[in-house]
Design a protein that fits this description.
Blueprint lengths: L8 H20 L6 H7 L4 H7 L3 H25 L5 H16 L2 H14 L3 H22 L8 H22 L5 H23 L10
Helix pairs in contact: 1-2, 1-4, 2-3, 4-7, 5-8, 5-9, 6-7, 7-8, 8-9
């Protein structure tokens, strides 16, 4: 097995800057987000930070891309660890994604990112790419459950799923009953998906009489 190469000093510094930028957003929001504040939080001089991220826009784009990459990594790990039974796998995936949607740090940070997406097309593009990845992975889980449906129909179901999970993120809260809320949200979402899929499935063939 090949040993993983440890990160270089430059890579460690870049990671520290991205972590500091995320902390800055979480603690003070986007209004006071600036290079000097992030540099101070990372315990770096401004010139050192600008060696990696010359402008505020480049730093914000990097923070957004890093966050979305973490989301995609979580999604793929979630899918890969599911049981082999298609029905159970699908239910567990929806529950895990509802749980993940309510993680407090993720909830707070992505709220700021979504707001920034209204002003920055690059941020919005990143969010759209993330949701496209979600839908592709969900379609893979849906296909064995609904083999008669077309890709377009499965993608419609995946759209509904993503909207439902993100709706749960917004309305579910992050309190002591979050786990209970996630279970209920997943159950209601699964019921809605099954009902919607039934409307898309072709009706059984009528008996032919000779």
């Amino acid at each position: 097995m090949t040993e993983k190469t440890p990160p270089s000093k430059s890579e460690r510094r870049r990671r520290a800057i991205l972590d500091a930028a995320q902390e800055q957003v979480l603690s003070e929001g986007m209004i006071d987000f600036g290079l000097r504040r992030v540099a101070a939080r990372a315990d770096l001089g401004l010139s050192s930070l600008q060696h990696h991220f010359p402008t505020l826009k480049k730093l914000l784009s990097a923070v957004t891309a890093d966050t979305l990459q973490q989301e995609e990594t979580y999604l793929r790990a979630c899918i890969e660890s599911l049981p082999s039974d298609p029905s159970i796998a699908f239910e567990k995936a929806v529950l895990r994604l509802c749980d993940h949607a309510q993680e407090e740090t993720r909830l707070a940070f992505l709220t700021h990112i979504w707001a920034e997406g209204e002003r920055d097309p690059d941020v919005m593009t990143g969010m759209q790419e993330l949701y496209a990845t979600w839908r592709r992975e969900l379609v893979k889980l849906l296909r064995p459950l609904y083999p008669s449906l077309t890709f377009v129909q499965l993608d419609q179901i995946a759209h509904l799923l993503v909207a439902g999970i993100e709706g749960h993120r917004i309305t579910g809260g992050t309190n002591a009953s979050a786990e209970h809320n996630s279970t209920l949200a997943a159950r209601h979402l699964l019921d809605a998906i099954r009902a919607f899929a039934d409307t898309l499935a072709p009706p059984p063939a009528s008996p032919r009489f000779v």
